[in-house]
Amino acid sequence: MNRSKHFFASLPLVLSLQVLCYPVVAQTLSECDRQQEIFTFQVPNYGILHQGGAILNIKVAYRLTPEVSAENHYPNYIPIKKEIGNYLTNYPNNNDYWEIVNKNLVKRLLDKYPQMSSLSIELGVMPTANKPFRSSIVRITRPQGCAIVLGS
Questions:
Q1: pTM score > 0.85 for this model?
Q2: Residue 25: its pLDDT value, please?
Q3: Which residues touch 119 (CB under 8 Å, ≥6 apart)?
Q4: In 3D, which of 121, 124, 123 has the Cα closest to residue 140?
Q5: What is the rounded distance in angstroms from the CA atom of residue 146 to the CA atom of residue 64?
Q6: What confidence score (pLDDT) does residue 1 get?
Q7: pLDDT tens-digit readout, 23-60
């Protein structure tokens, strides 16, 4: 008889069955998950002289703080749209990349509008003869704020 078979045949067979029990944990939704109010608007075909001239398609989405939603103190989007236009028209550094322009714009709007918990801006730069379409998306959420969750 082969010795290795004999050795294993003489070992006791031990089965171990482990049953794991976890206590049921009640899931509670966070304040951010319970209610989400997002407002969006677009500014299509916005002409700008930055970097030699461009046509932008601007998409803006912002999430309101729970306090604003509860108290119905919604900001009007028209002054926000005007602020974007003023900012882009008077942007100080013509050589900044679009990503930097966009990041600075988002920060400025969050500073000016405390009703926003989170802000997302997409600057779509339309193609030209020598440059393809490109875009910059910047999303910033305040500390302890609720992030924007854009659905499918």
A1: no
A2: 46
A3: 60, 61, 62, 63, 106, 109, 110, 139, 140, 148
A4: 121
A5: 8
A6: 52
A7: 544 556 677 777 788 899 999 999 998 888 899 999 99
**Does a structural domain hold residue 20?**
no
Residue 147, domain member (yes or no): no
Domain enclosing residue 132, as ranges: 31-141
Whichever domain contains 73, its CATH number is 3.30.1130.10
Give the total number of structural domains in the chain.
1
Which residues in the chain show pLDDT less than 50? 7-8, 16-17, 24-25
DSSP state string for 55-96: EEEEEEEEEE-HHHHHHT-PPPHHHHHHHHHHHHHT-S-TTS
